[in-house]
């Protein structure tokens, strides 16, 4: 199921967020489009998602890996997309057991 997270201030960057495993369970959806301001960081995205979806998702996001356009984003303080980018894909991958 895909939803759109409404925001009072629609920006210029859309983050297409895909949730996996425990992240999907905590979010209540498997994917959603999140409007953000140009220059928004992964930390901005995480804060918006935790505010919109609740503390259970916030806890999962705090320990999850974020893949931004297929690249692991370790520094959550850098912009999600290149200047002027219209969209990015963000995969939320919580820790899991097994191999």
From TrEMBL:
InterPro entries xrefs: Beta-grasp_dom_sf, Mopterin_synth/thiamin_S_b, ThiS/MoaD-like
Pfam families: ThiS (PF02597)
Protein name per UniProt: MoaD/ThiS family protein
């Amino acid at each position: 199921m895909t939803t759109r997270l409404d925001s009072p201030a629609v920006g210029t960057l859309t983050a297409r967020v895909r949730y996996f495993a425990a992240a999907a369970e905590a979010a209540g959806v498997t994917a959603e489009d999140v409007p953000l301001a140009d220059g928004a960081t992964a930390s901005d995205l995480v804060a918006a998602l935790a505010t919109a979806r609740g503390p259970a998702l916030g806890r999962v996001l705090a320990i999850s890996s974020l893949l931004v356009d297929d690249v692991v984003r370790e520094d959550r303080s850098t912009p999600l997309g290149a200047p002027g980018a219209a969209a990015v894909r963000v995969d939320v991958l919580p820790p899991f057991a097994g191999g």
